[in-house]
């Protein structure tokens, strides 16, 4: 199977007639009762223009968004989507227009940029893994940005029908400014692994919302890898549409001088006997001689356990390794519990430099300091990289981390 389509932004394609849009001329601001009750809409005009004073955007350098947040960014470029992998009936690929009734099923936009992306794409790519299908090879969705100085908007939906089992790689690369929504829906009993790789060029700005819907007794593994781009902001929102669902959300990111990476997660437990495990690890390194802004990462992890979600088992962890002076990592885990009838709910967050004891141990055995530091960083990411079930992806990430370390002389 191999298919290619070009996803082009169209600011004229406003939310008129879009299912779920909020009507009216004035933006609506509704205070959230809890983390899961934020205002959502498919209509961009239903949202106020965000600023750095807003809680959801307080870490984001708004000027570096290139107008994605306030409507100044107009679609003047094209992003190319190519899909390769198993053939039908195991996997099918469609290019659909914005009126396709399937679009938006996984969740509505919760911010203005996501709504702008939904209101502006012309065509969407829909990948469907057939019921009870178990393709041996991964499905690879390669998205190439619109190019330097260009802006585009896009939409990808992945459906894993009941009792299917598959691996999908979303490989994003190239230059330009790009905003998108990614929908991932798992039917009852489905088992899907998604590896989303942000390997953009140095000048790229990418804002993406991932809407994750896990069905009854389904299992999702969602891996976010962020290595390239000037500014990358990924926001996965997970909900369960049936009891017994299980989700592992893993992340790896490595920020260099001038890069700003953000990951905003929300896990909404609204069904009984579901499980979630969140582990994100990041490293940062800057260059004291550079005139660019220093490396910066932001991780926000929100977990909500609603009153009806008895038997929930959830854990979230974020760890950051700061390799140079000046680099900054912000980590904010949040846990909101509305019922005491749960199995487990805990979170942890650490940000620090090299472990002196680890370095001393390695150097005491004759390993030079530079090599010892590289070994510590490799081991830091080892836990997540080794869980990715595709050898070529594991090797690519290991090589990318080696390249990052070599470039900084760590």
Notes on the protein architecture:
Residues 148-380 form the SUF system FeS cluster assembly SufBD core domain. Residues 1-20 are annotated as: Disordered. It comes from Tomitella cavernea. Belongs to the iron-sulfur cluster assembly SufBD family. This is Fe-S cluster assembly protein SufD. With 410 residues, this protein is mostly beta strands. The protein folds into 2 domains: 2-353, no CATH class; 354-410, no CATH class. Helices cover 13% and strands 42% of the residues. The chain has 4 helices and 19 strands. It has helices at residues 112-120, 356-363, 369-385, 391-408; strands at 2-8, 78-84, 91-97, 123-129, 139-144, 151-160, 165-174, 177-186, 191-200, 205-214, 219-228, 231-240, 246-255, 260-269, 275-284, 296-305, 313-322, 328-337, 344-352. The strands form 2 sheets. Strands 1-2-5-7-9-11-13-15-17-19 form a 10-stranded mixed beta sheet, covered by helices on one side. Helix 2 (356-363) crosses helix 3. The longest helix has 18 residues, at 391-408. The relative contact order is 0.10. Residues 7-32 have low confidence and may be disordered.
What would the keywords be for this entry?
410 residues; mainly beta; 2 domains; 10-stranded mixed sheet; 9-stranded mixed sheet; 13% helix
């Amino acid at each position: 199977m191999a298919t290619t389509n070009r996803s082009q932004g169209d600011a004229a394609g406003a939310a008129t007639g879009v299912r779920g849009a909020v009507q009216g001329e004035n933006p609506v601001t509704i205070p959230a009762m809890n983390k899961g009750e934020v205002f959502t809409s498919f209509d961009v005009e239903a949202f106020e223009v965000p600023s750095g004073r807003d809680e959801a955007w307080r870490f984001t350098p708004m000027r570096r968004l290139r107008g994605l947040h306030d409507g100044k960014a107009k679609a003047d470029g094209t992003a190319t989507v190519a899909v390769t992998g198993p053939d039908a009936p195991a996997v099918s690929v469609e290019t659909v227009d914005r009126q396709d009734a399937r679009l938006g099923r996984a969740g509505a936009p919760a911010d203005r940029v996501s709504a702008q992306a939904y209101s502006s794409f012309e065509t969407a790519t829909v990948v469907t893994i057939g019921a009870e299908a178990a393709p041996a090879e991964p499905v690879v969705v390669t998205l190439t940005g619109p190019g330097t100085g260009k802006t585009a908007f896009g939409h990808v939906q992945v459906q894993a029908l009941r009792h299917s089992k598959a691996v999908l790689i979303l490989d994003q690369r190239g230059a330009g400014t790009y905003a998108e929504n990614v929908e991932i829906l798992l039917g009852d009993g489905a088992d899907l692994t998604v590896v989303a790789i942000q390997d953009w060029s140095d000048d790229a700005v990418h804002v993406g919302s991932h809407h994750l819907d896990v069905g009854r007794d389904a299992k999702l593994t969602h891996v976010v890898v962020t290595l390239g781009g000037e500014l990358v902001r990924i926001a996965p929102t997970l909900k369960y549409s049936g009891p017994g669902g299980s989700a592992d959300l893993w992340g790896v990111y490595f920020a260099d001088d001038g890069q700003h990476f953000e990951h905003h997660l929300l896990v909404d437990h609204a069904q009984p006997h579901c499980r979630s495990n969140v582990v994100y690890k990041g490293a940062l390194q800057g260059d004291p001689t550079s005139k660019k802004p220093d490396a910066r990462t932001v991780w926000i992890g929100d977990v909500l356990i609603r009153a009806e979600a008895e038997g929930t088992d959830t854990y979230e962890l974020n760890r950051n390794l700061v390799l140079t002076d000046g680099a900054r990592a912000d980590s904010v885990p949040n846990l909101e519990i509305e019922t005491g009838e749960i199995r487990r709910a805990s979170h942890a967050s650490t940000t620090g430099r090299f472990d002196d004891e680890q370095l001393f141990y390695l150097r005491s055995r004759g390993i030079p300091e530079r090599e010892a530091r590289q070994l510590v960083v490799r081991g830091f990411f080892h836990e997540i990289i080794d869980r990715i079930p595709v050898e070529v992806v594991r090797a690519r990430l290991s090589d990318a981390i080696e390249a990052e370390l070599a470039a900084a002389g760590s």
